[in-house]
Specification:
about 85% helix; mainly alpha; about 500 residues
Length: about 500
Amino acid sequence: MQRKFLKNLGFLLVLNLMIKPFWLLGIDRTVQNTVGAADYGFYFAVFNFSFLFNILLDLGITNFNNKNIAQNNHLLTKFLSKIIVIKILLFLLYIVFTIGGALLINYSREQIIILSFLAINQFLISFILYLRSNFGGLHLFVTDSIMSVLDRLLMIIICGVLLWGNVVGEFKIQYFVYAQTIAYGLTAFAGLTVLLRQTASPFLKLKWDWPFFLMILKQSFPYALLVLIMTFYNRIDSVMLERLLPEGETHSGIYASAYRLLDAANNIALLFSVLLLPIFAKMIKQKQSIEELSKLSFTLIIIPALILATGAYHYSSEIMELLYSRHADETIIDYTLRMEASSNVFRVLMCSFIAISSTYVFGTLMTANGSLRLLNIIALSGMILNITLNLTLIPMLQAYGSAISTFFTQFLVAGIQIYLVTKIFRFNINYSLISKLVIFVIGIILINRISLMLPYIWYINFLIMCVAGLLLSFITKLLSIRQILTIIKYGE
């Protein structure tokens, strides 16, 4: 399984690193620079509000399905058409709650219109993730990898034409939302077409089955509750900024500009859990030891997380100024203050990525094991802490307060998950790995400090730091080329 994990992880990472950085830096960043912080903050706050009832689109079905298809491939034909009917009905329920919630907090007509399209996008995303859970469960990781970037590739094409093709006059944030709708719709259609070829019937026959719905609801509810709670403490920040502060859209835009790279890093780290969940589930069912795979996956994700987080902390101002230009209606003083605020938020958010990365291994392992009750208790604790800190810190520190809330929440959740995994699976405390990590952290901080003094352009210094950090991981023997090559060549 280690061999399968490494080979498919390599393919998945290469494919995503070819597409998603261009989407992030070439399209998403350009959109914010084009429309300005306030307009993008307006979109970002509404976008995050569309996430708050997102669980109603799925009710944990995707994670439940991924685990069950991985352990019982024959269930695909039985489940597919019935689950699609359930997804459509859940979409209608989601629309009622989302639009109702928006009206309750006095969203304007313009916000409601944008929210309606974003709600459709959320349904399409949820449907794509459900389709991908089947590919992952069947261990069709190449197909799943292609599906993971197809929507972004289509959005790059559509938004690229709108931004630089002189097709429209002034680019508006609404065009960005419409482009997402088209791209997600085409991706969902392509995924469904491919998946139908894996079933006994090439045609989709929708069928409502009330007993099946109740069974799915009962078994997937713990997954649904977990996703709901995690969505609240991961997405509530920008909504609270927009609601709690005067000029809240601007502060939400500042938070969004700093959050963008964290979100991109999360999308890459998430690929680990996409592969690990079906692999862990199958290994647990077959009563295989998962300690070595857990160690390998944790090491592979935590090393780049530490390099990226420490580098982002030391080069935050340069990165923010590279990514964002001054908007036409913004004074130099306002731009300077915005860049300073974004840099401070960015430092804290990227440090929280270290904790987030570990949850993609240990949280996924607990999910595969069915330890949903414990995961829900952890997530609920994180949500209570996050909302409490936001209510306290946002009025005083604005977007920086939200970043601090995220930092403490993510480290609390990660720490508890690591502790529980060692107890549940009876892992031995790996003192050698811990000592190597401590040495590596100290070393990467020193490398960053030294790189700041090099007589080159800052991004050359940053690149040198990354290469030196990677070499340090081999020097400290956190990574071993020989071990990785042996696993790929001879591993199971």
